[in-house]
Amino acid sequence: MLTQRSRYALRAMLFLTQQQAATGPVPMNRIAAEANVPRKFLELILADLREAGFLLSTRGKMGGYRLARPPHLISLGEIIRVIEGPLALVPCVSRTAYRPCNDCKDEATCAIRHAMARVRDETARILDGTNLAGAVAEELAAA
Description:
single chain, Arc Repressor Mutant, subunit A, two-stranded antiparallel sheet
C-alpha cells in the first residue's frame, strides 16, 4: 500500500506541475495549503525530492520550490522510489535492493516470487509510464 508520505509527495509534485507557468518559485506554505500536506512533513519530503534532483529551491522572501525538469520528464514511479524505495513487494524481486527471502526454499520454483515479479513489472510499467504532465492533464480532463 502507498504510504501517506508518498501520497503527500505526489500531491506536492502535481501542484508544482500545475504552477509550472507561474513566474518564480512557489513558497512552501502555499504548497502545503494547496496540496493539503502538513508543513512539517512537507519540509522533509521536499528536501528528499530536491536531493534527488526533481526540485530546485530558492531561499529568501521570494523563495520557494519549482520543478528542476519539465513535468513530462518526471514519472510517478521515480517519485515513489525516492520516497519509498523499491516498488517490489518482496525483496527477492527487487531490481534495486535485491535480497533473498529468509523462508524461501528455492527461488527458481517459488510461485510467490514469480507472481510478485509480474506485479512489480506491471506496477513499474504503469508508474514509470505516467509522468507529471500526463497526470495533471488527466486530472483536468476529469474535472
